[in-house]
Amino acid sequence: MDLIQSYDGEAVSSSPDSSPPGIITRLWPKTKCIETIVTGIMSQHIPALDYYSNKLPLVSKVYASSEAFYGLNLNPLSKPQHVSYTFLPNMSYFEFIRVDADGEDTSEIVDLVDVTLGHYYEPLVTNYSGRTMSQHIPALDYYSNELPLVSKVYASSEAFFGINVNPLSKPQHVSYTFLPNMSYFEFIEVDDDGETTGEIVDLVNVNTGTSSGEKKIFPANDNFEDILLGLALSSLIMSKHVDGYKQGKVMIFKFIQPISTTPCGLPLAPSITIIMKSKNYRSPGKRSTTPDEIIMCTDPKQSMYCQLLCGLVQRDEVVSVGALFASVLVQIIRILEKYWKELCSNIRSGRLSDWITDHCCRDSVSIILGEPNPELADLIENECGQESWQGIVSRLWPKTKCVETIVTGIMAQYIPALEFYSDKLPIVSSIYGSSETFFGLNVNPLCKPQHVSYTFLPNMSYFEFIHVDADGEATGEIVDLVDVKLGAYYEPLVTNYSGSLYRCRVGDVLHVTGFYNNAPQFRFVRRKNTVLSIFVESTTEEDVLKALDRATVVLESSDLMLTGFTCFGDVSTVPGHYVFYLELKAKVNNDTNVLLLDEKVLVEYCCVMEESLSSFYRSLRRKDGPIGPLEVRVVQQGTFDSLMEFFVTRGASITQYKTPMCINSAETLKVLEDKVLARFFSDKSPPT
């Protein structure tokens, strides 16, 4: 379907006039090149510049920032995607933090002369422009020719191992001679298939992929189940602070996934599934509204429906409602909104719906459902049938004392919704954990969500901390748990006891807020390197740019080009979804000031964007999943000029202005929303 919209939003008819590209070469016919930076986020503008200049050479000459001048492009006529900058060592003192391909710091810092071909680094700059610094410029010789790659030493944070006695050997032939006086060395023999250690690996834990968008796996053994101690302590803390907590039942929604196996036959599953299926797991039993047989159902829709039904039948006994993440709990309320009439029908008839096919679910629900109960069905119908669902949790479960769910970090966006549905019952974030380890507990569970801090349990893992600044940038300094400073920011570095002492960077930024006795307390600030996150996925700047690059082909098929974009995570809908604001321009101008928008093309654009995002995002975009279809909002031409003016009036420099990759401010979003012409959604789930 073709949509023709004017920039004031009115639908009109048009017949576009043909206009050739290359306005720059036509107006300035002797132009040899276009000089502008088109690396990084600026690469999105290459198609537009190619169009306007009739593909004149685009020259990115320099690499610089407010901190320093770094270097020059010695091959200025190279293609934009091939631009490299030669560093000028006399401009500043340069060091480099080694990062992996996902941009995660490894904490290894090297000098300019020690960087290795093919590796990724983040520059660390000491400039000479401050007072007295010019007196201490190191004597550096500048080389522009190729140098041999020299692997000089073999070392790690644990020890200095040895040296390369033949430093000019080819990199693939490097060997290190161990220095026995540096440490006491022992060696464990390994075969071609893997490592043999003193610890027996019983299973493999798979994480959610929140750091890079891709799932990672960790070998684990029985020590992994020490997390059960943390959960037991959390329950004791709740009993101490919440009156009547032990006098009723908890309706905590839990879900597991099917267990797969590795090639060598070890069980492979997420943390929660491992814990729930552990032989040491102690079921809440009569303290829970949901029998274990329902929780063990691997069909999330059937499990969620049956857990809701059991909770409604036992509504007068429920003292706590919750789920691990706030986003899950909001989605459960959405399911209740969709199925409340059917749930009431089940209660009225005393019979479970036929579409519930899991035998364990049917048997367990039948016992709890019992005889027909029309009075209870009428009561629930009366509450759910009201015009407003404000306070629906406290109305359906009147004895509820609190809502138990994690609302720190990205989950804080769901606090207003939970407060609306619960009539502002206390929201309790009781634990802080990850696939790597269990970190700690909230010893003040009834505090406001924005004041939550977690007290670390030092017996759970060996904790170290990488000092970071307020923006989450690593400084390279690593300290132990006992050495963290009040008010400082850190990224935890974990060596767990559950899988052969693996040392892992978690990727969270934490703020030290106090101490409980001598144990530090941390506030969760945010994930590192995240642009978009709706559930527990992590979409980075690089992910977004790659997706936009792939989707550009779709626009070109309709003679449209992208002249500006930004994005945000919209959680005003359930489930939340990604929104991209696009400013588009027709390659063929016309005199009617209209833009031809082909709905089919823009829906396909949304689909290609989703297909280009991480595998973890795609798995969450399944039908009835926690992330909704990606949306594109096309805005009027000139919208991003207005956005720039908005920031400039607040002190930004026009020279250094960059359109924000992601918008979080409601005031800034209003600038964009006032200019929206049309909205388009992905019409299918991306392949996983």
From TrEMBL:
Q: Name one Pfam family in it.
A: GH3_C
User: What region holds the GH3 C-terminal domain?
Assistant: 542-666
Q: Which residues form the signal peptide?
A: none
InterPro entries attached here? GH3, GH3_C, GH3_M
Q: Does the keyword Ligase apply?
A: yes
Q: Which domain of life is it from?
A: Eukaryota
Keyword NADP in record:
no
UniProt entry keywords in alphabetical sequence: Ligase
Q: Where is the GH3 middle domain?
A: 85-130, 454-527
Q: Name one GO molecular function term.
A: ligase activity
- Record's family? Belongs to the IAA-amido conjugating enzyme family.
PANTHER family from the UniProt entry: (RAPE) HYPOTHETICAL PROTEIN, GH3 DOMAIN-CONTAINING PROTEIN
State the name under which the record lists this protein.
4-substituted benzoates-glutamate ligase GH3.12-like
